[in-house]
UniProtKB/TrEMBL annotation:
Gene Ontology annotations of biological process type: glycerol catabolic process
Upper classification of the organism: Bacteria, Bacillati, Bacillota, Clostridia, Eubacteriales
Matching Gene3D superfamilies: 1.25.40.340
EC top class, as a word: transferase
Quaternary structure (record): Homodimer. The dihydroxyacetone kinase complex is composed of a homodimer of DhaM, a homodimer of DhaK and the subunit DhaL.
Pfam families recorded: Dak2
Official protein name in the record: phosphoenolpyruvate--glycerone phosphotransferase
Domain of life: Bacteria
Free-text function comment from the UniProt entry: ADP-binding subunit of the dihydroxyacetone kinase, which is responsible for the phosphoenolpyruvate (PEP)-dependent phosphorylation of dihydroxyacetone. DhaL-ADP is converted to DhaL-ATP via a phosphoryl group transfer from DhaM and transmits it to dihydroxyacetone binds to DhaK.
Pathway: Polyol metabolism; glycerol degradation
Keywords: Glycerol metabolism, Kinase, Transferase
GO molecular-function terms, A-Z: glycerone kinase activity; phosphoenolpyruvate-glycerone phosphotransferase activity
Organism in which the protein naturally occurs: Acetobacterium bakii
UniProt entry tagged with the keyword Transmembrane: no
Length: 212
């Protein structure tokens, strides 16, 4: 079970990570894009963290929708609408929930990744957010199906996400600005895949803190 407090904690932890890794994400984007990914993510989650205190009495679905809408409205560039859609979509499968089962968490991740695929018209292997997100969700599902707790599953998910980030170094970008570089994008780590791996790290840390 994930409580509303844990969901809020996850969002807070992720926002802190986006502040902490702002420069690193921007440096990755400098190499293959326009050098604003860390700035974008930090701007969005700073706005989210300002909104969080007003969301305490809302259900989890409304909290995630508010996060998504804040990201869409405060972040220019590709990542705002992509992350924003993911949070909004995740909210839609959690209608009225104050607590989440493991299956709810999996459904939320699946709906979120579906939103990113739809919005970005991308598939796995194009050097995007999806290259860490899809393997992470697969690993979480596998771990839960083997009878593990959500904390253990999220550990496996984060590991798979970082493996996905490593994989982005080996492939050509075919979406977004990085695609203009063609083969020259090889050797570089995708910024969006990296920020997504931090999301699974934040989820794992929130779950671990709850001691389950
Ligand atoms: N169509 C897409 N589908 C999924 N992820 C994408 C797509 N296009 C870009 N991305 C992700 O967005 C990241 C860049 O986000 P950023 O915040 O820098 O926005 P941006 O500068 O507008 O992006 P871009 O120049 O790639 O369009 C990339 O590293 C990639 O992971
Ligand atoms: Mg950019």
């Amino acid at each position: 079970m994930a409580t509303k407090a844990e969901v809020l904690d996850f969002i807070r932890i992720y926002g802190d990570k986006m502040a902490e890794h702002r420069q690193e994400l921007t440096d990755f984007d400098q190499a293959i894009g326009d050098g604003d990914h860390g700035i974008n993510m930090n701007r969005g989650f700073k706005a989210v963290s300002e909104k969080l205190p007003t969301l305490g009495d809302k259900n989890i679905d409304d909290i995630l929708k508010a996060v998504g809408m804040t990201l869409v409205s405060t972040v220019g560039g590709a990542s705002g609408p992509l992350y924003g859609t993911a949070f909004m979509k995740a909210g839609t499968v959690l209608k009225g929930k104050e607590e989440l089962s493991d299956q709810d968490v999996i459904s939320a991740f699946e709906e979120g990744v579906g939103g990113i695929k739809f919005r970005g018209k991308a598939v796995q292997g194009e050097k995007t957010i999806l290259d860490s997100m899809i393997p992470a969700i697969d690993a979480i599902k596998k771990s839960i199906s083997e009878g593990n707790s959500m904390t253990v599953a999220l550990e496996a998910g984060e590991k798979a996400a970082w493996e996905g980030v490593e994989y982005t170094k080996t492939i050509i970008a075919t979406k977004g600005r990085a695609s203009y570089l063609g083969e020259r994008s090889i050797g570089h780590q995708d910024p969006g895949a990296t920020s997504m791996a931090y999301l699974f790290q934040a989820a794992k840390e929130a779950a671990k803190k709850s001691g389950k």
